[in-house]
Amino acid sequence: MISTISFGPSPSGAHSRLSTSSSPQPSMSSASDSPLTTPNFDPNIFSTSDSQSDGRRDSRTSPDDIIPKVEEAELELADVKEEADETPISPTEPVRIRRARGRPRIHPPRSPTTLSKQAKARSKTGCTTCRKRKKKCDETKPFCLSCQKNNIHCEGYKPLEIWRSGKERAAEARKRSEDIKFDLPPLMEGVESDLDRSLLQHFANRASAVLTLHGDKATNPFTKILLPMALQHEGLMHSVLCLSASHMYSINPSQEYEDRQAFHRGKALQLLKHDLERQNAGEGGVMVYEDSNVAQILLHLLHSICDGNTSGEYRMHMVAAKQIAMSQKSANPEFQSLFDEFFYYHWIASQITSMDGTDVPMMDDFSLPFKINPETAGLIGVSDGLFGFISKIGNLRRRLRSRIDSKLEPTMDYEALLSAHAIDSGLRGWVCPQTPGTPRYTISMLYRQATWVYLYRTTKSSHPHPYIKSAVDDGIRYINELPAEGWIQSNVLLPLFLIGCAAFEEEQRVEINRAFSGLIACTGLGNIGFAKEVVDDIWKLMDAGDQESWDWEKIINQKGWDFLAT
Length: 566
Known about the structure:
Radius of gyration: 56 Å
Number of helices: 21
Largest sheet: 2 strands, antiparallel
Structural class: mainly alpha
Strand content: under 5%
Helix content: 40-55%
Strand order of the largest sheet: 1-2
């Protein structure tokens, strides 16, 4: 009996294979001999089985039927071998991809599934509404037609974002964080910038020490009395900063200090004018000045000195201060003492460099009509009574100048002689109220010496004399004993100017020049240079034997100057 041939699916369902209805026969090649696994194929398909040995054939099968089937099986076998490279050996084994010859790939190849299915990038340029709805957008600007056709509000398009590196994004983030930094508001009215804060600190540390004999901030009247008042009054704070900027500019000339000085001065005068107009409507139409406004007038007077103004700007502040001094008193005794001392000091000192002057009211003993403790005084000369002598000498000089201009003889009449004798006697009997051995004692004795030199130059002819030489030498010794500190040196300008105008000897002038240079370095006051120039002019007249060298007020007036040597 001839075995039947059947074609059916393999167990894996991937290929057809040949099989017989009888028991399975050995395959053509085992799995160990070849890497390919082929369907079970019986090579004895063309022979009969043992049961057919009788030579009889099945009447249902003929050779013509068997040959086509065999050929078909061979073709199928060839297809199996051709596809063996791409067919997995087992369902769990990965697909083997044939690689072309050449250099090996650096990166492993992707699977056929990935190669065959390339992901299409989504468009990110559609409108916001279509992107939220996950619909295709026609990208019509400014609003897409798709949203309009569906009667949907189109939210438009996001702004185009330019790619930036990590460093650029970090820099932009830092910039944004800096942009959102808010400046703190000013703590004190009038102190509006970092420069103003530095000017306020400069006033407390240095400028205030130049204006008084108190080097300690705890006892300095400008920091102890005026600064607390300035914290409560904007106009007074502007006046403080104006004075500080003026002093800073004299030390270190800079455009920013000059601009800030002009700004604070303008604001201070504007607020002062507003306050005075408001106070002018007082009871009975009498002007009543507040302490803060009086302090402003005092600071503007000092500013005209530090600024080195020679146009007489200090005079309008002096007139206002004089009106206040004669008409009202402060309820604060400390502030009233500060105002009296500084006003009378500069009022009397103005007579030394100006031809215009009025008699200062004082007591018969040459003392002023108020009392100040010499130990706590901020200046030298007022509390100890020396400025009473200086004021009397100023009155005497105006009398003698009037007689000279009127060509009256003798120049020193009987009244002038009695006045000079009284001043000389008063100076000889004067007792210094300061503690000996202290800088205050030394500078008080310097003022006494300069006052006597002032009297001698007023009453004696302008030529060298042993008396005046001795007095100038002693004055220079007092100057050289003083410490080179601003709070001391700032009080030296007035006596130095008077002693310099009497220095006939060359060696004395060397010391005077050195003292002026040190004064500029220690204090930075703007009027020192003008005072030194006047002294130089006096020396030229003295060397020429000109008798007019005693009248330096006239020389200052001829220059068109009007300033304070304080």
